[in-house]
Amino acid sequence: MSGLPESLNLVVNLGTVAILCIEGSYVPQIVRLYRIKHAEDVSVFFPSLNLFGRGLAVIYSFAQHQPVFVVGFMLGMLLRAILLSQVVYYRWQHRRPARLGRVALNEASGTDAMSGVAPGLS
Q1: What's the predicted TM-score (pTM) here?
Q2: pLDDT at 11 over 60
Q3: How many CB atoms lie within 10 A of CB 69?
Q4: Topology (CATH level 3) of domain 6-109
Q5: Cβ count within 10 A of residue 31
Q6: Which terminal residue of the chain, N or C, has fewer Cβ atoms less than 10 Å from its own Cβ?
Q7: For the chain, what are the domain ranges?
Q8: Which of 116, 54, 43, 37 is nearest to 84 (CA)?
Q9: For residue 90, which phi and psi values (nearest 5 degrees)?
Q10: Contact residues for 20 (Cβ-Cβ < 8 A; gap 6+)
Q11: pLDDT tens digits, residue range 53-106?
Q12: Which residues does 67 contact at the CB level (< 8 Å), separation at least 6?
C-alpha cells in the first residue's frame, strides 16, 4: 500500500495514536473551562511553558524529518494556545466586574477612582 514494510507501518500508526492521545489530553480541560467559565485555579505558567516547549519540539521534529510528530506537536500547540487564551480571558472576565464595581462605587461617592480621595480634598 504505502511502500513501507509492515513493521514500520505499525510503528508509524502507533506513533500517530500516541501523539493524538498525548496532545488530546488537553481537550477535557478546555471543555471544563468552557463549561464553568472561570479559570482561577489554573496556572498561566503551565500552559505558557508547555506551549513554548511544544514550539521547540515542532522545530526539532521538523529538523529530524518526523512529520507525525510535527503535526502532532502543532496540534498540541493549538490546544495549549486555546487553554492559555481561556485562562487569560476568564481571569480577565472574573476580575472585570470587581473593577467596574469599584469605579461605580467611587463615582457614586464622589471620590477619584485612582486615589480614592474626593475632588478638591487632596
Answers
A1: 0.71
A2: yes
A3: 20
A4: Monooxygenase (1.20.1280)
A5: 10
A6: N
A7: 6-109
A8: 43
A9: -65, -35
A10: 72, 75
A11: 999 999 999 999 999 899 999 999 999 999 999 999 999 998 876 666 666 556
A12: 61
